Recover the amino acids of this structure.
């Protein structure tokens, strides 16, 4: 059971380049989300999805696109990278256990630098 | 507006000391959920606990305990007999969606260093 898998772990981009951060989960979770973590800012929600075909914006969506064509995958796209997008990105998925407690699982993170 | 405040930016203790991490939240909703997450130096985020606003019972899990007080809007986290492996950044978070945690509002985190 791989859990939540993020790739790549590290990435350096030049301003204006585009790229996709991959996120996959093999736990059949409906909910998935993307966060960015910046020093002194904590974690901020970028986009989220409550199921295949459904996505919505979080707190800081500008400059990012997402899609959810399958339950397993939730890629995050940077269309034109900017230095302000230098951050650590976390993907997460969640489910409810038998006691109706939600459990959130995070990927290991992607460290992105935009020069 | 929803907000989570973790006033302690960094805490340093010696092994075996008890330590409490503070979390104060703001919301006008009557139904909400509170979380704690741990981020060790490896960077991954680890879920610790989720509480709903109707359950004010304190919870204990091994050396970890949580004190939820609606009267002061606080959800503090205590580690008893701390260990070096507890060194991490700890995040408190608030969720209002009454369902999934896809709209968590995180505090800025408290960096805990446990020295041998």
């Amino acid at each position: 059971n791989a859990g939540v898998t993020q790739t790549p772990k590290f990435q350096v981009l030049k301003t204006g380049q585009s790229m996709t951060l991959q996120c996959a989960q093999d736990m059949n979770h409906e909910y998935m989300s993307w966060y960015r973590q910046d020093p002194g800012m904590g974690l901020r929600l970028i986009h989220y999805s409550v199921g295949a075909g459904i996505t919505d914006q979080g707190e800081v969506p500008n400059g990012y696109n997402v899609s959810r064509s399958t339950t397993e995958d939730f890629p995050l796209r940077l269309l034109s990278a900017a230095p302000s997008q230098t951050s650590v990105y976390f993907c997460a998925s969640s489910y409810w256990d038998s006691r109706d407690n939600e459990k959130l699982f995070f990927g290991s993170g992607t460290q992105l630098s935009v020069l | 507006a929803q907000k989570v405040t973790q006033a302690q930016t960094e805490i340093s203790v010696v092994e075996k000391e008890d330590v409490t991490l503070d979390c104060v939240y703001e919301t006008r909703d009557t139904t909400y959920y509170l979380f704690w997450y741990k981020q060790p130096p490896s960077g991954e985020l680890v879920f610790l606990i989720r509480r709903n606003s109707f359950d004010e019972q304190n919870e204990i899990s091994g050396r970890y305990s949580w004190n939820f007080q609606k009267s002061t809007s606080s959800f503090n986290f205590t580690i008893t007999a701390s260990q070096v492996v507890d060194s991490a950044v700890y995040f408190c978070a608030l969720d209002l969606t009454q369902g999934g945690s896809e709209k968590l509002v995180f505090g800025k985190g408290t960096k805990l260093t446990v020295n041998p």
Q: What stands out?
A: Chain A touches chain B through 30 residues (CB under 8 Å).
